[in-house]
Amino acid sequence: MPYITKRKISPPSHKEEHNERRNSKWNKYYGNSRWKKLRDWYMSLHPICADCMINGRSVPATELHHIRPFGTGKDEAEKMRLLLDPDNLVALCSDCHDKRHFILNHTKQDDYFNTDNN
Ligand SMILES: [Zn+2]
Ligand SMILES: [Zn+2]
Questions:
Q1: pLDDT more than 90, % of the chain
Q2: Domain of 47?
Q3: Which of 23, 30, 91, 114 has the most crowded Cβ, counting Cβ within 10 A?
């Protein structure tokens, strides 16, 4: 009898689909040319993760975090203002960025969009 290996065929990843949809929603913001310029400028001024620096570590910042998630803006104009406000930004490494979102009750900015209709 031939030995049949049960190959586990993984179903299409819903997570990835979700991410993709999320990304297209974000593109409007993160694809914004003013945001890109601001991000580059901010990262050049703040190359070290702010949270690691507090703990005496020098870890390169790779991500920008919005202290007040710009998705909380009540309308498009306010979202853009929050997105592009340098006082609303903090440069972090990805670990610290995750931690910040963990502290925000697991709330990624995306979730704020989902509450828009409330
Ligand atoms: Zn860090
Ligand atoms: Zn963030």
A1: 58
A2: 30-109
A3: 91
Q: Where are the beta strands (DSSP E) in 23-99?
A: 63-66, 89-92
- The alpha carbon of 76 and the centre of ligand 1 are apart by a number of angstroms equal to 30
Is residue 2 assigned to a domain? no
For residues 92, 45, 82, 59, the Cα torsion angle rounded to the nearest 10 degrees is 0
**Distance from the CA of 1 to the center of ligand 2, in angstroms?**
56
Quote the strand ranges of the chain, DSSP E.
Answer: 63-66, 89-92
CA of 65 to the centre of ligand 1 (A): 11
Q: What is the pLDDT of residues 56-110, one digit of tens each?
A: 999 999 999 999 999 899 999 999 999 999 999 999 999 999 999 887 665 555 5
CA of 71 relative to ligand 2 center, distance in Å: 11
Would you say residue 9 lies in a domain? no
Q: Report how far ligand 1's centroid is from the alpha carbon of 52 (Å).
A: 4
Q: Give the distance (Å) from ligand 2 centre to CA of residue 14.
A: 23
User: Taking 80 as the threshold, does the pLDDT of residue 40 lie above it?
Assistant: yes
Number of domains in the chain: 1
Domain contains 10: no
